[in-house]
Amino acid sequence: MNNAKFDIKNFLLAATLLLGLGACSKDSDPAPDVVFEINIDAYTVEFTNKTEGVKSFKWEFGDGASSTEENPTHTYAGKGKYVPTLYVTMQNGGTYEASTVLRISKSSAVKLDDNSFSDWDTVAVNSITSGPAGGVFRKGKYDYDGNYIYFYFEMATTIAAGDIWDFYLDSDNNSGTGLITWLFAGAGNDVLIEGIPMIDWFDVFYHKGAQNSFTFDQQSITEFYKVGFVQESGGLLKVEGRLVRSKIKGLMNKGVKIGAVLTKSDWSGPVGTMPDTGSPSFFLDMSE
């Protein structure tokens, strides 16, 4: 277990509502939004209720333990996949529930809300330095934990340039499925993520059809990414962020091949790739 601590702030879980043990006393009463937040520090998780109008609470943490506190703290025995559930009984007697998947595993020191890149200094592996075919990319790093893939890039560009981001992901680590592209060798890209994340435009697409066909279906996936600290200084644009592993097909596997591309705002062509154009996609080993 990596002893570095990480802290997930304001991670809003708006889970799908399921009608629970009770029923609304009035058929016209709308179902409430059952919402809670979590903070994770190694094996310890703080649960914070954000649901309004609740009479009583019951938390089941997914490991046999439970609590009736509104905002409990629970320590898991070790690594694993857990499904904590919050049951709420409303003032009208109706009972509702919401669940989420929680993975307790490798931790990361990366924090996205500290207005700093200094935490990336602790990431000694999964680092890439661009070569002559990298274009505007200068440096990149990846890290991960049980819930997220983190990324950090240094690029010789600006936000005002409007460069379009693309992540090509071989999410099943199988070159026999997904798009084969000249940009990166040795990968069959099952997932494309495209947009400008700094202005809240990022979309997920899944490949379909022949491997030599650039055909992707757009997915209706929300809250699958977050941008952290962004800085323009010394001719470099530095950006950090994360992808939610459970939201995107295949990212809960033990490894993923990643290729990052910046394209001109008018789509006329790429201005940078990481790794270098024509090089093998970067393999992020997530087996720990």
Q: Any overview of this molecule?
A:
- With 288 residues, this protein is mainly beta.
- It folds into 2 domains: 11-104, Sandwich (Immunoglobulin-like); 118-285, Sandwich (Immunoglobulin-like).
- 0% of the residues lie in helices and 44% in strands.
- The chain contains no helices and 23 strands.
- Strands 15, 16, 17, 18, 21, 22 and 23 form a 7-stranded antiparallel β-sheet that branches.
- Strand 5 (54-60) and strand 6 form a beta hairpin.
- The protein is elongated, with a radius of gyration of 21 Å.
- It starts with 10 loop residues before the first strand and ends with a strand.
- Mean pLDDT is 89; it is low at 1-27.
Question: In summary, what is this structure?
Answer:
With 288 residues, the chain is mainly β. The N terminus is likely disordered.
Topology of this protein?
Layout: E1 11-14, E2 18-19, E3 35-41, E4 44-49, E5 54-60, E6 66-67, E7 73-75, E8 80-82, E9 85-90, E10 95-99, E11 102-104, E12 127-129, E13 137-144, E14 148-155, E15 164-170, E16 191-196, E17 201-207, E18 216-219, E19 225-233, E20 236-244, E21 255-263, E22 270-274, E23 282-285
Antiparallel strand pairs: 1-3, 2-10, 3-4, 4-7, 5-6, 5-9, 8-11, 9-10, 12-13, 13-14, 14-20, 15-16, 15-21, 16-17, 17-18, 19-20, 21-22, 21-23
InterPro entries: Ig-like_fold, PKD/Chitinase_dom, PKD_dom, PKD_dom_sf
Pfam family, one: PKD_4
Protein name: PKD domain-containing protein
